[in-house]
Amino acid sequence: MGEQNIEINEKVIKRLENKIIIQESYNLRTKELSDSQMIAKIKKMIEEEVQCYLNQ
Amino acid sequence: MLLESIKLHNFRQFRDESVSFATGKDGKNVTIILGENGTGKTTFAQAFFWCMYGKTEFTDKVVLNKLVATNMRPSQEESVSVELELKHGEVHYTLTREQKFKKEYSGKISSQNTIFDIAKKNTSGVTKYVEKTMCESEVKKILPEELSHYFFFDGERIDRMSKNITAEKKSTDFAEAVKGLLGLDPMISAINHFNPRSKYGVIGSYESSYDSKSNSKVQEYVQKIEQCNDDINKADQRISELEDNIEAAKTRKEEQEKNLKQYEEGRKLQDRKEKLTNEISAAEKTKSQLIKDVCDNFNYQFKSFFSISLIKRAMNFLDENDFSGKDIPYMHTKTIEYLLDQGECICGTCLQKGTTAYKKVHDLIDFLPPQSISTSVSDFKKQALLLAKNGNNLKASTEKSIESISIENDDIIDKQDEIRDIESRLSGGNVREKVRGINSEIQCCSKTISTCEKELEKNRINKGVAIREKERAETQRRELALLDESNRKIEIYIAYAKKIFNELNNEYETSEEKVRKALEENINKIFKEIYDGGLSLSIDSNYRISVSVNDYDGYVETSTAQSISVIFAFITAIIKMAKENKASEDEDSQLRASEPYPLVMDAPLSTFDKRRIQSVCEILPKVAEQVIIFIKDTDGELAENFMGDKISSRHYFEKKNEFETTII
Question: Which listed residue, B94, B428, B435, B494, has the most CB atoms within 10 A of its CB?
Answer without folding.
Answer: B494
